[in-house]
Amino acid sequence: MSFSYSAHSTAQRATLHQHLQEILDRLLDRHDLRIDEGARAPEAQWKAFRNGFSEKRGDEEYPHRIREDGTSWAADIYPYINGTRIDVRAVGFKPIESAKFARFLGLLEGIAFDYFRALHAMTNESWRLRFGINWDRDAEILSDQTFHDWPHIELERVA
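^ thats the sequence. predicted structure below, dont judge the formating
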């Protein structure tokens, strides 16, 4: 099956770092998705903070900000199955929705791993993704954190 970005996702994709664009393009080859948000202005970040969708205020460094390279290193993405977006509000409450979202993120993690391994072999640069369901990157998802952000991914350069 072939998937393509909507106009909204295309516009959000353009705000992302090239590595995130490449990874999400590869994911789109395998699974339908929406890039809900890439770069976020400080006013929008304040709104996300006030509404409980972020733990970062708009006057501090936050993942969706525009970096020195002119791009955002974070995105909020949602999986679609048969043309329907998974209801993130049901994730954590309905096992089937949680399983669908977890499968989507596992697929993304595998794609990112392969992408970064190849990139490192070519450039010696080290990168990884950080997921909103595993902030501390310890493979223990959800049970060892209090703020769960299933759609959130962010790019990190590894020293």
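Helices lie at 7-13, 18-28, 42-50, 95-123.
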